[in-house]
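Holo prediction. Input below; ligand is 2-acetamido-2-deoxy-beta-D-glucopyranose.
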Amino acid sequence: METHLHALVFLLTVILLSVSCARGKQYISAVGDPGMRRDGLRVAFEAWNFCNEVGQEAPGMGSPRAADCFDLSSSTLKHKVTEADNKLGVGKPFPGLPPGAISNADLYAAQKELYLGSLCEVEDKPNPWQFWMVMLKNGNYDTKSGLCPQNGKKVPPFSPGRFPCFGDGCMNQPILYHQPTELINGDTLRGSFNGTYDLGAEIGGGLGGISFYEVVWEKKVGAGSWVFSHKLKTSKKYPWLMLYLRADATKGFSGGYHYDTRGMLKILPESPNFKVKVTLDVKQGGGSKSQFYLLDIGSCWKNNGDPCDGDVLTDVTRYSEMIINPATPAWCSPKGLENCPPYHITPNDTKIYRNDTANFPYGAYHYYCAPGNAQFLEKPVSTCDPYSNPQAQEIVQLLPHPIWAEYGYPTKQGDGWVGDARTWELDVGGLSSRLYFYQDPGTTPARRIWTSIDMGTEIFVSDSEEVAEWNLSNFDVILT
Ligand SMILES: *[C@@H]1O[C@H](CO)[C@@H](O)[C@H](O)[C@H]1NC(C)=O
Ligand SMILES: *[C@@H]1O[C@H](CO)[C@@H](O)[C@H](O)[C@H]1NC(C)=O
Ligand SMILES: *[C@@H]1O[C@H](CO)[C@@H](O)[C@H](O)[C@H]1NC(C)=O
Ligand SMILES: *[C@@H]1O[C@H](CO)[C@@H](O)[C@H](O)[C@H]1NC(C)=O
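Structure of the complex:
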């Protein structure tokens, strides 16, 4: 009897939790909270230095990992993460922390993410899930610090000049303020993370001259989607900043990580069988260098097609991004073939080589760069920055263009940009199945399983103080 009851409860759970209804049609969502509609929110925060590590904690802030997770019942919020948990930093033990990680800021942060994940975890089928992830990254690199490896290889310090850095401490972690989610006027839930990289700055005294980031989440109880409202501001000392909302894998290596992560993707989407739905309202663009990613998908596989295993010398992070800032030019051109992938594949699976100037869609590609550890690259080629990830990376950056129409992507400059708020239903799986990614000749094509789907902006080295502001809601990953 009890077994039958369990089976019945299990069956009901499967039906209720993994199948949601959209316009009367049933579909399976890959994310824990399809469409961001669950009142009991799960959101976390992480900050990265240039090579996606911590390096050193900011004074008094603890390890730059935090979370806001709660359940709502009869108008009461039951928070699952305390402010003491959020302030945990090197030297302070917590359940599950391996002894070797207690005094190493990088290892500690990775373990803290797992710990916060254990507090936030929601049981679900086929897998439990933990949280949406707010990711903040500082693009300063102190080349004299020797902190970042080169394509995964440890290298000695080198002369400055190539990367922004104002001097000692330019790779610091930010100040983080957390407003825990609260119920306002009995019907609205709201909370936030904000702060600055400028240690010692008073953000209450105005933002002139300093960097700033903020994510506010808000929702009407029992109705609609959470709205995540983002703001990112650069400054002279911090001219290159990134802020994303990520749906990461609930275990394994998410895009850009080389250690176990926690996240929202209870099922990992695989090309070509998934779509992404999201509402984006860009209020301020962040200047001409703001590479606003309508979507950034990230994964990891080796050049021989094998899945990554944490060996940073052979693992390669793979990214593809659609940049919707109309100020972003196509560096890929008949005269700049090194910035184009070797070929483009049309929806009807025709290959067009980049030297086919009559047919190659140059305007559809901002920039392509190949993994720095690939051995059989087609020349001319541009290799990706070897320092900004823990391992080699490959990046395919797209621009709005008519050839993407088939996949529901932006087809012209300005689509989805300031004043053109939209709900997108992007055939990310279809498009990503036809993008060029490098592989060693004669090897079995990698399975394109995406461990991160992110949205937000990367304000690239800017001369002036730039501000980007946008709202994101209704995020879903739909398996097709
Ligand atoms: C940052 O968040 C805090 C609450 O945690 C709030 O009091 C403050 O006004 C925010 N700062 C700015 C500049 O918005
Ligand atoms: C964006 O989010 C902010 C904060 O939740 C909200 O005040 C604002 O009305 C939102 N804007 C739109 C257009 O939804
Ligand atoms: C495939 O599409 C291209 C244009 O995108 C077109 O020129 C070509 O004729 C098509 N080929 C087939 C076999 O349909
Ligand atoms: C164009 O590139 C392809 C692939 O690299 C090559 O096989 C072909 O010979 C090139 N065509 C011309 C006209 O250079």
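Helices lie at 2-18, 83-86, 105-120, 428-433. That is the main takeaway for now.
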